[in-house]
Amino acid sequence: MEVVVAEKHVQHKEKISQVIAEVGKVVVGQEYMVNRLLIGLFTNGHILLEGVPGLAKTLTVSTLARVLHLDFSRIQFTPDLLPADLVGTMIYNQKEAKFEVKKGPIFANIILADEINRSPAKVQSALLEAMQEKQVTIGETTFQLDRPFLVLATQNPVENEGTYPLPEAQIDRFMMKVFVDYPTKDQELEVMRRISNMKFDFTVNALLTKEDIYDIRDQVNKVKISDSLERYIIELVFSTRKPLEYKLNDIAPYIQFGASPRASINLNLAAKAAAYMEGRDYVLPEDIKEVALDVMNHRILLNYEAEADNVKTNEIIKTILNKVPISK
């Protein structure tokens, strides 16, 4: 039985590597973002992407959807968007003399909510409710959303005018918040050359099926994590709530609210997925540390003193990872 599982693990790791390479045919230099998107997919967690325009966030998500052979919907969030534009509405059929349901773009496997902070609270709430409940209600009928269902939302950190920032409680529903950075000089040179070549082929091959994704999810769920590492996750999260008890005197004055229990849950899940994608069926401390920044950076609320001293959340998390010991 263990030999069969090991063989399946090797096959999955090879397929995942092929998926990343296939996306790389179109997208240059965003391996980190693709890795985080796959972690979200394999753990049923939604991802919030933050980065300036032009970093291929939309192209990466749409390309990944094609490689995974999943239905894809891109929704451009604008100030005049309504919840019905997202989930759907009832329309009157004059010929049949009755109302019919017209489903919205949310009925897909991968949803790209582009610039989610451009729309008012009602639209954001409609999306986040669908993320949590995996269903929407149109008229008097409740519809289950397609599975797998993954929301990848983007927001632009540069422009604040005319935006509706997500409340902390809503941001907390995202498994990870991933900061997308600029490409290197060599990567940008490659992008420039590809785009300037009008004959560049953007087609990719579908490499995973829904059955493969469910199979990988099942295997990720079976990845072993020791009691000491489970307690380490709890200590990391509690140190954001009561930093003085962990002798984190240098960062304690900057933290207004610590991470929620969702941080503990998602650290566990993301660490398991990271371990599995590395070819292991057990979690190491390095797996937890690797995903900690993305899982916790949007769950720690800093105060005005931190803003005045130009202290960033990632600095707080790095300090915690350096000083909080692994439980025995």
- Helical element count? 13
Share of residues in helices: 40-55%
Strand order of the largest sheet: 2-5-8-1-9
What is the H level of CATH, i.e. the homologous superfamily of the largest domain? P-loop containing nucleotide triphosphate hydrolases
Q: Label the structural class.
A: alpha/beta
Number of strands: 11
CATH architecture of the largest domain: 3-Layer(aba) Sandwich
* Annotated CATH topology of the largest domain: Rossmann fold
Write the element-wise H/E pattern from the N-terminal end onward.
HHEHEHEEEHEEEHEHHHEHHEHH
Quaternary assembly? single chain
Overall 3D shape: globular
Strand content: 5-15%
| Count of distinct structural domains | 2
Biggest sheet overview: 5 strands, parallel
- Integer-rounded radius of gyration: 21 Å
The termini sit apart by 32 Å
How confident is the prediction overall: mean pLDDT?
87
Q: Determine and state the CATH class of the largest domain.
A: Alpha Beta
Catalogue the unreliable spans.
none
